[in-house]
Write a structure and sequence with these properties.
It is built from 2 helices and 7 strands, in the order H-H-E-E-E-E-E-E-E. It is of the alpha+beta class and 120 residues long.
């Protein structure tokens, strides 16, 4: 009695699974498409931006006007391998790390001298 029910739920007799490799390839295709979308829309642009930012920070030199991630404007007084000394006011110098983890703490900006004659 139960054998007929079991046969009814399965494939008809004589018909096996066709194309074993095709089944596997078709099941992985959506995953590959999703990975390609993530790579070209998220990963690649982020890598490009990180590379540009790293090049920009390595190009900092004495006399550049910068804005830090913390919002401090300053004039570069000294550049070392890993640190930058900024002059933020008369007789006030602050030492910053060029890159803190994956987020650099110094950002170049096109700041200009204000009408009062101060740095910014």
């Amino acid at each position: 009695m139960f054998e007929s029910i079991a046969w009814a739920m399965g494939a008809p007799p004589g018909v096996g699974h066709a194309g074993g490799i095709q089944d596997i390839a078709s099941s992985f295709m959506p995953l590959l498409v999703i990975f390609a979308i993530f790579y070209f829309l998220l990963i690649k642009p982020q890598q490009k931006k990180a590379k540009e930012l790293k090049e920009m920070i390595s190009a900092i030199k004495k006399g550049d006007k910068v804005l830090t991630n913390s919002g401090i404007y300053g004039l570069v007084e000294q550049v070392n391998e890993k640190t930058v000394v900024l002059k933020i006011a008369e007789n006030v110098k602050v030492k910053f790390d060029k890159g803190f983890g994956s987020r650099p703490s110094i950002i170049l900006t096109a700041a200009s001298t204000s009408s009062s004659g101060t740095l910014y």
